[in-house]
Amino acid sequence: MNDVIQKVELLFGQGYACSQAVLAAFAPALGLPQETALRIAAPFGGGIARQGKTCGAVSGELMVIGLRFADPQADAQAKDRLYDMGRQFIHRFERLHQATECNVLIGCNMAEPAERQAARERGVFKTLCPCLVRDAASILVEMGVTAGRT
After folding, report:
1. Which of 30, 34, 51, 100 could form a disulfide with 67 if both were Cys (CB 3.0 to 4.6 A apart)?
2. What is the pLDDT of residues 103-125, one digit of tens each?
3. Using one digit for the tens of pLDDT, what is the confidence trace for 13-31?
4. Domain carrying residue 125
5. How far apart are CA 72 and CA 137, in angstroms?
6. What is the total count of domains within the chain?
7. Model pTM greater than 0.90?
C-alpha cells in the first residue's frame, strides 16, 4: 500500500491542495475518477477555503472513509460505525500532530495573506504539510481503508 502514500506525496508535490492530494490518491480504488476527486476536494485546502479550520488532509481522509464505508440507506448502527471510524482516524492523527486545525498545525492564520506568505517563507508548505498528507494516508492504510467499496 505504499503506492497510495507515494501518490499522495506526488500529487501534493505537484501543487494540489492537501485535501485534493489525499482524496485523489485513494479515489480510483474507490470507484471515483481522479479528476472528479480533485474537483470535489478543491475548496477544502488551507483548512476549508483557506480559513484555517480542519486540515485539508483530515478532510480528504474523511471523504475517503465516506466513499469506502458510507451507505446512503444506512441505519443508525451503520452510521455510528462510520462515525466511529472517522473519530478513530481523527484521534490517531491528533496523537501524531496534537491538532487537526490547519491554523494550529502550521502556526499561522490561513485567512491572512501576510501570514500565509510568512509561513511560505518559513517553508511550512514544503516541510510540514507533506508530512501531514503522508501521515493521514498512512493512518488510513493502517486502518485498512484502501480496499474497494463494500
Report:
1. 30
2. 999 999 999 999 999 999 999 99
3. 999 999 999 999 999 999 9
4. 2-141
5. 25
6. 1
7. yes
